[in-house]
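ok so for the tutorial part 2 we go from a plain amino acid sequence to predicted structure tokens. step 1 is just haveing the sequence, like this:
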Amino acid sequence: MILELNGLHAGLRFSSAHIVFGHETCGVIHGHSYYVDVRICGEPSGEFGFVCDFKVIKSIVKEICETLDHKLMIPKNHPQTEYKIDNDSIYLKYCGDGKIKEYKIPLEDVVLLPLKSTTAEELSQFFSKCIVDKLKDMGLIDNIKWVEAVVNEGIGQGACYRLNIK
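step 2 — the prediction. this is what the tokens look like for a chain of 166 residues:
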């Protein structure tokens, strides 16, 4: 059985800025109004025969969205960027494609993510992994086969990643 949450209608949203370093048009700071769809495949179980309680999944995804909302998402693992945290600021330097771009941004405006890039593709993997990790921590993973997250950069445009459990 598959349970599905439509992020647009379920309020699983966040607005953030990012930079796709090296990309011709997306290599500048720009933002999106993201929403996250989630699908979980598993066997109904427990007292109520749920694959997973909708409230649990909504809570997990909303928590992730809240950490990203109104922040500049910076990838920690981009091969052509360096960053240094000093006091209340982050210094970011991108060296690639014959360009050097440097930024100084207040830390309160930034979220550092363990990703190579902050594309919808990478963000969908990030959401899937975070959901699975949280379900494991809660002991709610035994009946689940896979978790899929779609990170949409707006209506009609997003990336999907399925993380197989079994």
